[in-house]
Amino acid sequence: MRNEIKLKLYNTLTRQREVFEPLNPPRVSMYVCGITAYDEAHLGHARAAVVFDVLYRFLRYLGYEVLYIRNYTDIDDKIINRALKEGRPWHEIAEHYIREYQEEMAALKVLPPTHEPRATEHIPEMIALVERLIERGVAYVADGEVYFAVEKFPGYGKLSGRKLSDMIAGARVEVSEKKRHPLDFALWKASKPGEPSWDSPWGPGRPGWHLECSAMSMKYAGETLDIHGGGLDLIFPHHENEIAQSEAATGKPFVRYFVHNGLITVNGEKMAKSLGNYVSVKELLARYHPETIRLFLLTKHYRSPLDFTEKGIQDAEKALYGLYEALYFLQKVKPQREGGLSKAGKRLKSAFEKFALGMLQSLAEDLNTAEALAETFALISEINRFLPTARQASSEEAKLKEEILASLKEKVGALLGIGLEEPAQFIQKERQRKLKALGLKEEDIKRKIQAREEARQRKDFETADRIRESLARQGIALRDTPWETFWVVEK
């Protein structure tokens, strides 16, 4: 384990940044709330998945053995309503959107968790948990349904910082005459005619939403989690209710570190289908490279709100291309002489040493991916300063280049999930994608570049400039490098 690095995380439960210390090192248990499978995934779902993927990667980098659980809610009112609307079985709706989500997350380089449990596969565990709560006197049966009595749990509100007496006004709660208190929440719901149901001691029904996470986390990770994650919108009531039912059942702390990511806005407004600004992952993947989306999602600290704009994601696209372009040319550096570092080489070495330490320190300080990316692109900038001199690279500089490439692969690639592709292949795929959008053919571009090169060799610079300008009007920018004439599709 890399003991010299101390990870600090902002704990929503204590409202402060704390040094992370798992209950049973080197084992770490982490549970993150997944999707309700009734519709396509949006950018907010992707942000949560990517943020906790980076945390998962970093914990493993630090040497921890991580048990990572991310659930699927595959039975819910929204799924049932969608099934009725489309005239399809509810389980087909859930299966379709789970499979679609998994494919999209794989495209975004999100590593699969250790376990991906589904609610409907854990009904016996949920019934057992409800029985336990009834036995302890913190839950009650009312006409085939079971509710958790919030007044029986003294710690209710400790996560959200709300007092029970203040929560009733304006609270988003299910209206039911069966409740003894307005904030009591359903552990088990009686089924309505035509709805899916499971047998239980209280009659046919299905579990309440909050119940599944407690039951599944206990099954796979035990009674106390090291880390529980999700979006800020889950703090109340979902995570608050999870704490209540879990701790009332076990008498033990449910979670040691609650970690919540900020929400997505679109052009400064809350993202919502009703506002017509809903950004789906599927739509973005059709227009941008997956790593562009991933890079965009990491440009702000995970707890900050993230505003989606076309300019923002286009800036991420340019930054990602710049990263791959620098790697592409750095790979070409070969020793041309024996010797030490030139002035440019010394600057590069200094920047690399700063990056190697600063990038890890940024992630250790509450997973500050924005700072980690700043450290990364400071190094990329210095690589670009070094490259014009690289045709005369020394043996020491060639060795430095190998160290930089390995470090970028280990840190930016393995930790941030960016820069994982072979640079030449990435550049070629991006060229093809953009040329197709512009209706241009690569062979035509290459023919003009070759004609320009021949004109330059003849010292016919007027013709060479005319060809460059012609390509620029088509959206093709040329850059003369020590190795080749490099071209970029800029439109």
Concise structural overview:
This protein has 16 helices and 15 strands.
Notes on the protein architecture:
With about 500 residues, the chain is an alpha/beta fold. It contains 16 helices and 15 strands. The strands form five sheets. Strands 4-3-9-10 form a four-stranded parallel beta sheet, with helices on both faces. A hairpin with a 4-residue loop joins strand 1 (about 10) and strand 2 (about 15-20). The mean pLDDT is about 95.
Q: What is the domain tally?
A: 3
CA-based gyration radius: 27 Å
Average per-residue pLDDT, rounded, comes to 94
CATH fold naming of the largest domain: Rossmann fold
User: Alpha-carbon distance between the termini?
Assistant: 46 Å
Q: Got a strand count?
A: 15
Q: Tally the helices.
A: 16
Q: Roughly how much helix do the residues carry, as a percent range?
A: 40-55%
| CATH homologous superfamily grouping of the largest domain | HUPs
Write the CATH architecture name of the largest domain: 3-Layer(aba) Sandwich
Provide the CATH top-level class of the largest domain.
Alpha Beta
Strand order of the largest sheet: 4-3-9-10
For the biggest sheet, the summary is: 4 strands, parallel
Identify the overall geometry: elongated
